[in-house]
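[Meeting: bench + compute handoff]

Bench side (C.D.) handed over the final construct sequence. Compute side (W.E.) agreed to return the predicted structure before the next meeting so the bench team could plan truncations. Sequence as handed over:
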Amino acid sequence: MENKTTGKKTVQKEAKPNKDGFNLFKTRPLFLIATAVLVFAFVFIFLINPFHFNIGFANRKLEIEKTTNLVKEIKKIAEFTTACFYEELVIEDTKYKYKERKVYKKSDNWYKRQLGLGKTEVGTQIDSTEIGKIVLIAKGKIRAGLNFSKLTEDDFKIQNDTLYATLPEAEIFDIIINPSDIEFFHRDGNYWDEESISELVSRGKITMYDHAMSENILEKANKYGIEKMSNIFKTFGFKEAIITIKETTATDNASIIGLENKSL
């Protein structure tokens, strides 16, 4: 190339790349592969998490969501019956006719006693005469179990594949004696209307309640509740379910179901 100013020829050398420098175009495929590997590793470990690593916030958020969903599903069960008590009762009642009469003390004098004199009134006495009797046979059932409507998220804790659950203490749901399960064995007189028969059935329920409690129905309901729920929780995907029963203040279950605390 000729330099017009001096008339001398100068030679311009071609620029050659620096062998020691960084060339993005040559390293780009390797860079993309490395980036893809890192992204895949992040998704596999932190999101899929097949090895159940404790990954801090992400893992905690997943456990909270799983607990919330679990509580919602269990609450749908509401009353979970785990024990029943069956009994056939003989209930009877008698109607009496009452008559009041005066009571006298006879005189201490022999002569007056012979003449019927000197009697002193000391009070009255009630005499009763049976005028009617009813005997009925009633078949009844008592249901006991766990009330899942009382559950909260604080009653559950999830750690990896293990569930820790605290369930409410068993309670009696109802005492059932259906009209179709009542048979009149004996009934005389027209002294028993629907109201009096209903009262007899209520007395029968009280007796059933006392018998069921003596047979430890609530303890059995707790025991079977733990066994059944352990199997149910495993269907949710937990390998192990550690279940305890929440201890509550003792209450009179008879008053809860509307019965007086007395027996026949």
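W.E. noted at the follow-up: The longest helix spans residues 24-48. C.D. will use this when planning the next construct.
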